Amino acid sequence: MEDAAALGPVADEVTVALPWGPLLDGVLGGRPDVLAAIAALVRPGGRVRVVVSATPRDGREPPSVGDLRAAYAAAGLRLSCARAATRADVVAAGSTWGKRLGAGARRPALLIEARRA
After folding, report:
1. Which of 35, 48, 52, 107 lies 20 to 30 A from 7 at CA?
2. What is the pLDDT along the chain (117 residues), one digit of tens a residue?
3. How many CA atoms lie within 13 Å of 68's alpha carbon, on the beta-carbon side?
């Protein structure tokens, strides 16, 4: 994560498609260091777009919108969208894994969008 922060703001948009492990924990707000590293990559006014699928069966409870808003704000990001992802959202994310999982169709998925302050 330190490497990402060392790059500084280099992107107008960062997309995270169906992460797992620490990256999943980060975008769900459970790893503030990971979310801060993602935010550090984005230029002011830039966008972070996340398509994520996490269920209690995976050992992860999907966070509330309020919890997401607070976690993203702490990382310097303003949450603009947190809603159920559609199949089209998953396809647009370009994840073949998401397509195989049926994310946004057979398996619940979440679309999160935020802007850097």
Report:
1. 52
2. 556 656 678 899 999 999 989 999 999 999 999 999 999 999 999 999 999 988 888 888 889 999 999 999 999 999 999 999 988 888 888 877 666 676 766 788 899 999 998
3. 21
**Residue 54: how many CB atoms within 10 A of its CB?**
22
- 47 φψ region: left (φ > 0), alpha (ψ -120 to 50), beta (else): beta
> Looking at domain 7-116, which of 3.40.50.2000, 3.40.50.720, 1.20.1090.10, 3.40.50.150 is its CATH number?
3.40.50.150
Model confidence pTM above 0.85: yes
CA of 27: how far to CAs of 64, 102, 103, 104, in Å?
A: 13, 20, 17, 17
Q: What angle do CA 40, 41, 47 make, to 5 degrees?
A: 100
